[in-house]
Amino acid sequence: MKLDVRPLTKARWKDVVELFNRPGASIPRGCWCMYYRKTGGHGGVGPAATNKRALKSLVDRGYTPGLIGYEDGRPVGWISLSPREDYPKLQRSPVMKPVDEKPVWSIVCFFVDKEARGKSVSEKLLKGAIEYARSQGATLLEAYPVDKDEPSQPDFMWFGAKTMYDRAGFKEVARRKENRPVVRKAIRPRTGKAVSR
């Protein structure tokens, strides 16, 4: 399949709402990809309606919290990435805490519509994320995949599989839990592009 990967903007807000409201999207519909952006009560999650408003507020201010993948104009996938400092919950995570002081962009979530699974949507979203981060001046991309021999239920693979990152050229830089490595990919930013969020 051909996947068109685009930043989530105000004009595309309705597309992420449609994607997260489909059957099989109960996890993103509850979190709205705000879990790692928040701290505090309710484990940092809070009510779904509050999370949805918080994500929309970011988008309305011109911030890009992630990318949407489209198949024939229909939204079928989502990837959340941002500069690491925009995810305060990572700072205290025993598994995902900083490896060093280098400035990195972090990938914390994938979601693929259940009708589009098995079509390499996550890999294409990852490729789009690498290109987007490069266009924004990022030089280092970091992720926290799952590394297990046996297949996992797709709904619990929001970090992505390590094998996918291996194929994309990411290298393991830390492992604080048996099946949860930290992986990185150095990228060359496009010249003449300003960093924006």
Please tell me about this protein's structure.
The two termini are 29 Å apart. The chain has 197 residues and is α+β, with helices and mostly antiparallel strands. It is 27% helix and 23% strand. The protein has a single domain (4-186), classed as Aminopeptidase (3-Layer(aba) Sandwich). It is built from six helices and seven strands. The protein has helices spanning 13-20, 26-31, 48-60, 88-92, 121-135, 162-167, and strands at 4-7, 66-71, 74-83, 105-112, 140-143, 171-177, 180-186. The model is unreliable at 193-197 (pLDDT under 50). Strands 1-2-3-4-5-7-6 form a seven-stranded mixed sheet, with helices on both faces.
Structural topology:
Layout: E1 4-7, H1 13-20, H2 26-31, H3 48-60, E2 66-71, E3 74-83, H4 88-92, E4 105-112, H5 121-135, E5 140-143, H6 162-167, E6 171-177, E7 180-186
Parallel strand pairs: 4-5
Antiparallel strand pairs: 1-2, 2-3, 3-4, 5-7, 6-7
